[in-house]
Specification:
The chain is mostly helical and 154 residues long. It is built from 6 helices and no strands. It has one domain.
């Protein structure tokens, strides 16, 4: 069971990343790579910088769940208190990038499902609290402002 949780908590982010690369290369027309590419990079950087800033000023817990319980972590983690979840931030940012740049419902739905399962895996692996995971989602969503302004290409 520990191996399954580790695969879900750590491995699904790789699958989400590969799906995002596939979507950009094969679903976004080449003439729109630059207009969408810079928006995606700007959204990702905005989300990451917001996450670091918010995490600097707001840490609801000083210890991760596995540290509180005195057990081994069930997945990879960075040596920080954990808010917000970087895995969730990254997967959500990529899922939103695919949605806005491709409008592919099937691909986006698959990525949303994988992202949610990954977030649950991070909590089950005891490396994040539910608040860490939800925080990563909402902060990534704030970065999506770049998909609205300036007017996105069609």
């Amino acid at each position: 069971m520990d191996l399954i949780i580790r695969i879900i908590a750590d491995g699904l982010v790789i699958i989400v990343f590969l799906l995002a690369i596939y979507a950009f290369l094969f679903k976004v027309p080449k003439k729109l790579w630059w207009p969408w590419g810079w928006r995606i990079v700007a959204a990702g950087l905005t989300a990451y910088l917001l996450a670091r800033l918010i995490g600097y000023f707001f840490q609801p817990e000083s210890l991760r769940p596995f540290e509180k319980l005195g057990v081994q972590p069930g997945a990879a983690f960075l040596p920080n208190p954990g808010f917000p979840s970087d895995h969730m931030l990254f997967a959500t940012f990529l899922t939103l990038a695919v949605w806005f740049s491709t409008k592919s419902r099937k691909l986006t739905t698959a990525m949303i499902i994988l992202t949610v399962i990954m977030g649950v895996g991070r909590v089950l692996a005891l490396v994040h609290t539910p608040l860490d995971v939800v925080g990563g989602f909402f902060i990534a969503a704030l970065g999506a402002v770049w998909y609205y302004w300036p007017k996105p290409p069609k």
